[in-house]
Amino acid sequence: MKYLSTRGDRSERGFCNILLEGLAPDGGLYLPAFYPKVDATTLARWRSLPYAELAFEILSLYIDDIPAADLKRLCTATYTETVFGTPQITPLKKLADAHEGGIYLEALSNGPTLAFKDMAMQLLGNLFEYELGRRGEALNILGATSGDTGSAAEYAMRGKQGVRVFMLSPHGRMSPFQQAQMFSLQDANIHNIAVEGVFDDCQDIVKAVSNDLDFKRKYRIGTVNSINWARLLAQVVYYFAGYFQATSGRVQATPERVSFTVPSGNFGNICAGHVARMMGLPVVQLVAATNENDVLDEFFRTGTYRPRATAETHETSSPSMDISKASNFERFAFDLLGRDAARTKELFGPTLARDGGFTLTPAEFARIAAYGFVSGKSTHADRLATIRSTWQGSRILVDTHTADGLKVAREHLQPGVPMLVLETALPAKFADTIEEALGFKPEPPPALRDIEALPKRFVVIAPEVTAVKRIIEAHCRDV
């Protein structure tokens, strides 16, 4: 399998090269040259596989430069009951709801940092260590987080041979629990950088550093954000796993269909669903649920993509979605535009820079329906009401982002079609809002109970590319 850039670079690159590279040299995002197709027979064969074996089957369709035995070993080492707390890895919880198809939560937050990012990041850490060890090389990972990516990356990479992590986060805009998870780590290869701005400022810096090819090559800069295809690929697996749990075990000529609702900020999680659907997973709808930062909802309703400025980006009670520049959105747009790299490059390059956004042509906008995408928006009041009603009706406690997903999911139910809402984090990470909704704070797992009281190690900087480069240089003089 070879990979190409959404902006036209068609150099022959295999999986392991783009694993370490992150962004393409032309500033685009990598996608496979084609999506492997799965049919009803393959779905029937995969249905009974344990999660680690399912992951191997799916990943092996995209990875042919890691020996199969090694890839299988990496999947088996990653997806264990010890790490994720359950043999199913991503178990479904059915809500007490009258919808005939059923509304389910797919539990993705049982990993070490209590967020869905662990599902991909744990694998990514093992892939990085494997490939760097095979090459005898080192890598400096530069990432940006709005809350959960950072801790998931740092917990996955801490102590890994040949890996340093430089993680940018918006200063003061994460929950206290999220900050503590990251800033309390004392590992020598972990460096936390709090940026005086919003997540989009952090993400812009990561892209700017990655686009400085001389600096990137000199200091061997890689990424763990979902701009890295390997992370998005790992997320494709749980769409299949959720589908198999929600549908019956009968082998049918026409497989049963489901829909997914995904709380969406940077568009990576739901873009993995798009990939699964393109592969042939029987998905009716992919529902993008936004919070008050509703750039994606506006796009799917109107065809206009209009990222907001820093001052217009709302600080909300679902902070991991406080994003207005959805970097993975370019991947979907590339497919939507018929894989026209020139058109994609124009829209996400000069047009976006000049006009602050773009509007699809009527013909382009009309194609969205064929990809199954719809959307909706949730507010703080909606969040509180959904947390309350889910607890009262099903005795299930959900975090703020998952509440956004549930609220929007109920607006898009279809008769007889199961709706799977992807859980994004455990409620303990957003205890203040849970207390506002229900009058009590959820207990974190015992191992993390006093995490907010631990000493913290981080630096605060202005939102400047040069400041980040200086920090990398200071810690990498031996590179």
Entry summary:
With 479 residues, this protein is α/β, with parallel strands linked by helices.
Key words describing this protein structure:
479 residues, alpha/beta, Rossmann fold, 2 domains, six-stranded mixed β-sheet, five-stranded parallel β-sheet, 15 strands, 14% strand, globular
Give the SSE map.
Elements: E1 3-5, H1 15-21, E2 30-32, H2 40-46, H3 51-60, H4 68-78, H5 81-84, E3 92-94, E4 103-106, H6 117-135, E5 139-144, H7 149-157, E6 163-170, H8 176-183, E7 190-195, H9 199-211, H10 213-218, E8 221-222, H11 229-246, E9 258-263, H12 268-279, E10 283-290, H13 295-302, E11 304-305, H14 329-336, H15 341-355, E12 358-359, H16 362-366, E13 373-377, H17 380-394, H18 400-409, E14 419-422, H19 431-438, E15 459-461, H20 465-475
Parallel strand pairs: 4-14, 5-6, 5-8, 6-7, 7-15, 9-10, 9-14, 10-13
Antiparallel strand pairs: 1-2, 3-4, 11-12
Describe what you observe in this structure.
The chain is of the alpha/beta class and 479 residues long. The chain folds into two domains: 3-44 and 114-228 and 452-475, Rossmann fold (3-Layer(aba) Sandwich), CATH 3.40.50; 84-113 and 230-446, Rossmann fold (3-Layer(aba) Sandwich). The chain contains 20 helices and 15 strands. The chain has helices at residues 15-21, 40-46, 51-60, 68-78, 81-84, 117-135, 149-157, 176-183, 199-211, 213-218, 229-246, 268-279, 295-302, 329-336, 341-355, 362-366, 380-394, 400-409, 431-438, 465-475, and strands at residues 3-5, 30-32, 92-94, 103-106, 139-144, 163-170, 190-195, 221-222, 258-263, 283-290, 304-305, 358-359, 373-377, 419-422, 459-461. A six-stranded mixed sheet has the order 3-4-14-9-10-13. The chain has a five-stranded parallel sheet with strand order 8-5-6-7-15, sandwiched between helices. It has a two-stranded antiparallel sheet with strand order 1-2. The chain starts with a strand and ends with a helix.
